[in-house]
Amino acid sequence: MNPKNEQEQVVLVTGAAGGIGAAIVELAVARGHRVMLTDVDETAVLSRARSLGPRAAACVLDIRSSAGWTRAFEAAEAVFGGVDVLVNNAGITHTGVARDLPEQQHRDIVEVNLLGTITGVCTALERMTARGRGHIINVCSMTSFLPLPGYATYCASKYGLRAFHHSVAIEERDGPLDFTLIHPPSTRTGMLAQEMADPSCAIAFAEKSYAPQRIARAVVDAIATKPVEVVFPPLAGRVQRIAGVFPRLMRRVIPIAEARGLRQRERLLPHSDAHR
């Protein structure tokens, strides 16, 4: 059953070949939406779309490319009609403490997670406003509230994305578009496997991780309900959001969480394929 019986929408999803993105498109198609899958991995995204049947199509998209964004919207329009919902899900990380990462890896994180998403939002703003309707859903991170060791530039990119998202939503408050921001916690994807291999990211294991399908459900439900912001877990996430306002509190609490994550990681290492 569709939440609130939402009408069929044309949805464009980035990072759709695997992880959270793949779970989003699978559920969106199951709910009756038509979905344009995009990803930098052309072979994987085309294969994923074929597995979902006629309500899905795919094209390659490097979200850092303005021309690529234009082609992705044009591809969706050619197959399904105008895009009703943009789900900005694509993102990357390079694990490690800030001083150890090469400059290019810092740049990669910012260019994909922040600048790539900004480019997509600006493309959507122009095209959706011209149509007189649209919904932009940005998949951010709980790290947009809390600075975490081992994730300095990743956190910075997500802090920036949250600020950008809400600033644009306020700028466009009198326009025809809706804006939703989703904040996944630690999620059992390939990114978590990368974190398992790096002890500097042990804080990722301080709390229970989520299956990608849980995040996908929040994203696809948001197509109908249009919440302003969604945090995970629902209660503890709100506490984390408040804690992020107080630097002294963060500097005391986060090392405690990091120590718990190190202990959890040590227990999980023999079973790391399960990611908890």
**N→C terminal distance:** 30 Å
Helix and strand content put the structural class at alpha/beta
Helix content: 40-55%
The largest sheet has its strands arranged as: 3-2-1-4-5-6-7
Radius of gyration of CA atoms, rounded to a whole number:
18 Å
Strand content: 5-15%
User: What is the β-strand count?
Assistant: 7
Can you summarize the main beta sheet?
7 strands, parallel
| Overall geometry | globular
Nearest-integer average pLDDT: 92
Regions with pLDDT < 50 over 5+ consecutive residues? 1-5, 272-276
> What is the N-to-C order of secondary-structure elements (H for helix, E for strand)?
EHEHEHEHEHEHHEHH
What is the count of helical runs? Answer: 9
Structure description:
By secondary structure, the chain is of the alpha/beta class. Helix content is 50%, strand content 13%. The protein contains nine helices and seven strands, in the order E-H-E-H-E-H-E-H-E-H-E-H-H-E-H-H. It has a seven-stranded parallel β-sheet, with helices on both faces. The longest helix has 29 residues, at 103-131. The chain starts with 9 loop residues before the first strand and ends in an 8-residue tail after the last helix. Residues 1-5 and 272-276 have low confidence and may be disordered.
